[in-house]
């Protein structure tokens, strides 16, 4: 994190003046939006007898919002490590298309590239822009990454003192995360539709590909069910978006 702040706060040229403030204003609302979701994970993990160090380790090494939530009932049921690994990998397969689309924004050196790629998330991708430099991408991802991990730890600490009957089992715990991701997805689509280089044909093509991806997902849900459609749906979306070069 110290390195991230150093490269981000390097002396700016006249053309780059104010860029840091603009990026900070762009990323802070997103970072704040994930705080309650990550804290909720920490609270639920603490209720499942996870230690604070385990929550910290999962956040640092796994960094997968939905994947981390999926691990909670599996761990409570004493599911095997391989099964938990496969479930998490299946859920995280959604990162394939966004990793492919954002790869050109990563730094060129191996260590910086791996570090930046590890911090890729839905919220970071939705916050980034096509014109962002690798330093800006690194800063955005580091802020969101640190916020998620830190909020999870805070939630785990608070979870040790929150009575178990305060959170009903009938509450849809995934709803806050779903709302945040839906808003960010719409914002990302809108920003891409109104890029300066986009003409009406580009916009209609983007909407068409997005419609094809949604249609393919709905078809797979009807064919193989809501549990097994995920991986083939992600693969189809990756191919379609890759061919469209969006």
Explain how this protein is built.
This protein is mainly alpha-helical. It has helices spanning 2-8, 19-47, 52-61, 65-76, 81-92, 95-102, 110-118, 122-127, 134-159, 175-193, 200-224, 230-244. The protein is globular. 26% of the residues are buried.
Features:
246 residues; mainly alpha; 2 domains; 12 helices
Strand content: under 5%
Sum up the overall morphology in one term. globular
Q: Helix and strand succession?
A: HHHHHHHHHHHH
Radius of gyration: 19 Å
Question: So how many helices?
Answer: 12
What structural category do the secondary elements indicate? mainly alpha
Classify the helix fraction into a percent range: over 70%
Low-confidence stretches: 1-5, 11-18
Mean pLDDT: 78
Characterize this entry briefly.
With 246 residues, this protein is mostly helical. It contains twelve helices and no strands. Helix 4 runs antiparallel to helix 5.
Task: Outline the secondary-structure elements.
Layout (H helix, E strand, L loop, with lengths): L1 H7 L10 H29 L4 H10 L3 H12 L4 H12 L2 H8 L7 H9 L3 H6 L6 H26 L15 H19 L6 H25 L5 H15 L2
